[in-house]
Structure formats: C-alpha cells, structure tokens
Write a structure and sequence with these properties.
- The protein is of the alpha/beta class.
- It contains ten helices and seven strands.
- Strand 1, helix 6 and strand 2 form a beta-alpha-beta unit.
- The longest helix is centred in the N-terminal third of the chain and has 14 residues.
Amino acid sequence: MTTLTTTPLAPLLDRLFKEADAASPMASPAVADLSPEEHSRLMRSKTDYLDFYGHLKDFPLAVSRETGALLYMLARSCRAHTIVEFGTSFGISTLHLAAALRDNGGGHLITSEFEPSKVARARDNLTAGGLIDLVEIREGDALQTLSADLPETIDLLLLDGAKALYPEILSLMESRLRPGAFIIADNADYSPDYLARVRSPATGYMSTPFAEDVELSMRII
C-alpha cells in the first residue's frame, strides 16, 4: 500500500480526474472559437500566455492518469527529496509528486502557479490529500517565483505550465539539477526549442518522447 493508493488521497484523485475529464478546455469560448493555427500560436507564444491561460482559470488542465502514475514512479525510483514543478493548476500532478515524497520519507516540493483561484483550489486539494506540509506554492509568474530561493540540488523537475517558457524555466533550474535528475515536460511538442535542447547530447541530457505527449529527460552531467 502507498500514499497514492490509500485514503484520503486515492478517492480524492478519483474525484479530481473525473472532474477533469468532464471539464474540457474546449468548453471555454476563448479556446473553442480559435482556429487551429491561432491555438498553436498562443500555445507557443512567449508574450500572450498570461492572457491565454487566464481564460482557462476555471479548467484543471490536468495531467492524464497515466502521466500522474509516471510522475509518482519516477519520483520514487530516484528517491526524490527535492522537486520543482512549473504549473500547479488544481494540483493533480502536485498530489502525485507529494505522495512520492511522503513515501520516500519526506522532502520539499516547490510549485508555481500565476492564477490566484487555482492556487486556492490546489491548496485545498493538497490539504484534503494530507500532503500540504510537503508543498510550497509560489503564486505569480514562474520566471520570477522560481528565480530564487531554490534547493541546492533538485532531484526532479516537472514542466507543465506555459509551453513556450520551458527553455527559460529549465535554465533557471539547470545548475541545480543533480546528475540523474529527471525532467518531465508535458505537451513539449509546443516547445520545439526545448526539445532541440534536451535531445542534443552536447547539452548534458538524455531524452526521449514518452507516450503521446510527454518528453522524459535525464540530466547526465
């Protein structure tokens, strides 16, 4: 038995995933009315992301159940004690990572979310899941909130915020990623600059696409 598969977390995650499945971002007029080209442009934009994601503040934008399980397994397998997450949303991915920390014996998870209402929802979910004591939620633009006061070493990094900022967030973390640290990037196909960087052997990473929408990388130097 693990924190992930027992009460209070297991029934909480079941409910949150069901709610996420029923709340497609396509129900938002701000997204539904976009052409495929405009949607792709906004997903890749380094300047319009605050407005774009602001329109989606009532939607969980959650990782899949499979990605959640992957996050837990990776954090357990590398015995993570320090984790950084870019993009909290309602906290579903955060719950999986914090559960791994609990089962690893403890640790510290720093996560960043710019939308105040989502910060409140995530905090409530982490409290309900009994994991809030392991998590520090930093409210605001991650380019500022994740630019200081970080752990000396980072065992795992999850990128699941504005896709165009993946290279910039990685740069903020890079000197602190220990050899063997995992970096998981959700929907990384919207950040070609990021993919080019982690897939180049000269940059110190080993990387491979995983499932349909995840890029799994490891720091090797």
